[in-house]
Structure formats: C-alpha cells, structure tokens
Design brief:
InterPro entries: TAT_signal. Keywords: Membrane, Signal, Transmembrane, Transmembrane helix. This is LPXTG-motif cell wall-anchored protein. There is one protein chain. This protein has two helices and 13 strands. With about 210 residues, it is an alpha+beta fold. It folds into two domains: about 55 residues; about 140 residues, Sandwich (Immunoglobulin-like). The strands form four sheets. It has a six-stranded mixed sheet with strand order 3-13-12-6-9-8, with no helix packed on it. A three-stranded antiparallel sheet has the order 1-2-4, with no helix packed on it. A two-stranded antiparallel ribbon has the order 5-10. Helix 1 packs antiparallel against helix 2. The protein is elongated. The N terminus and C terminus are likely disordered.
C-alpha cells in the first residue's frame, strides 16, 4: 500500500513538472495559410512606461520551396489599448510611414527571397507604453502582409500591458527561468521516484 501511494505521489509530481515546463514556454502564434505563402502573427507584451523587448512583426514562410517575392508590404493598425503606440523599428530594412501613433505601413524595396527558412519579424514595429497605460489592458494589432501576385493575408496580434521592468521573453526571464527549472526538477524527481517505486515493488513481488 505504501509503495502504491509513493508511485501515485511521484506520478503527480511528474505531471506537475510537465505542466510547469509547458507554462514557462513561449506562446505559439496562430498562422494563416494563403496558397504557397503562410504568415504567423505573434502576440506581444509591453511594460508600463517602457518598450516591448521583442519587435512586433509577422513571421512569413513559403510552403513550396525557394522563391522570390517583389513589392512586399506590411501594414499595422493598433486598436483598443490606451497609452500604447507603435512605430517603425529603427533597423528595419523597409521604407515605412507612421501617419499616427496607431498606424504604420512598411514596404520592401528589395526582393524578398525564401530559401526554405521562415522570415521572422518581417518589417517589424516597436511597441511602447506610456506611464499612463494601465497594467492588464489589452488591445489588438491588425497586421496585413501582401506582395506582387499574392493576395493580402491579414491576421491579429494581441498587445498586453504588463508591469514595468520587463517584456515578453518567457523562456529567458528570471521568473520564467525559475518556473522552468522547478518544473524540470519536479519532472525529474517524478520520473526517478516512479522508477524507484517500480524497482522496490518488483523486488517485493519477486
């Protein structure tokens, strides 16, 4: 009976470890497939009075092998989150206009080449929150990708205002690192405990 209880306890610890490790992982962005081109639209968090660590931009890939696109464009429209604004990234390779704090449009003067890899954060923008922004507020950024011969692909990214002093890096932040470490520790303890309980039970039956 004691061996059975020990196995159940270790099993619970293993499951808890898996859940904690999963929570500590990065959020997965939803994607939109439109013919040979697919686009994912990641969410982002921005600290009160600061700038999001990550740039906000679509991840673009081609599903039919190497290809080239011309006339690529990305537009952004921010809605529903007071005190937050968007602006072209300082090192963007595109030509961008920013008519209002909630609208940005960027075009690519050069050819966009796909060699089988994903182009991450393509023609991105920076996301900033004023000190007047409220923690917990959320809004959306409607992002549209288009190119010559490619019908516009539109998706939505969520913008969430968080406490100041950090941005969206769930796999490298100190808190996330601690959670992930604890999750892995619990997972390891659970696996070792289950194996040990099985060995003890096997010797007892034998």
């Amino acid at each position: 009976m004691q061996h059975l209880s020990a196995r159940r306890l270790m099993g619970v610890l293993a499951v808890a470890g898996v859940l904690l490790a999963t929570v500590a992982g990065p959020a997965q962005a939803g994607g939109v497939h439109n013919g040979p081109i697919s686009v994912a639209f990641p969410d982002i968090e921005v600290p009160v009075g600061g700038t999001a660590i990550d740039l906000l931009g679509p991840n673009v890939w081609h599903t039919s092998g190497p290809t080239q696109l011309t006339g690529a464009k990305v537009t952004y429209v921010l809605r529903g989150v007071p005190g937050v604004r968007i602006s072209p990234a300082k090192d963007t390779r595109g030509d961008c206009v920013n008519p209002t704090p909630t609208r940005v449009s960027c075009s690519e003067p050069r050819t966009l080449t796909f060699e089988g890899e994903t182009v991450e954060q393509y023609l991105p923008v920076e996301v900033k929150a004023a000190k007047t922004a409220k923690r917990g507020d959320t809004g959306t950024v409607t992002i549209t990708f288009s190119a010559d011969g490619v019908a516009p692909i539109t998706g939505t990214s969520e913008v969430r205002v968080i406490s100041g002093g950090g941005g969206r890096l769930p796999t490298t932040g100190p808190v996330a690192g601690l959670i992930g470490g604890l999750g892995l520790l619990l997972l390891g303890a659970g696996v070792v405990g289950v194996l040990a309980a099985r060995r003890r039970r096997a010797r007892f039956i034998a």
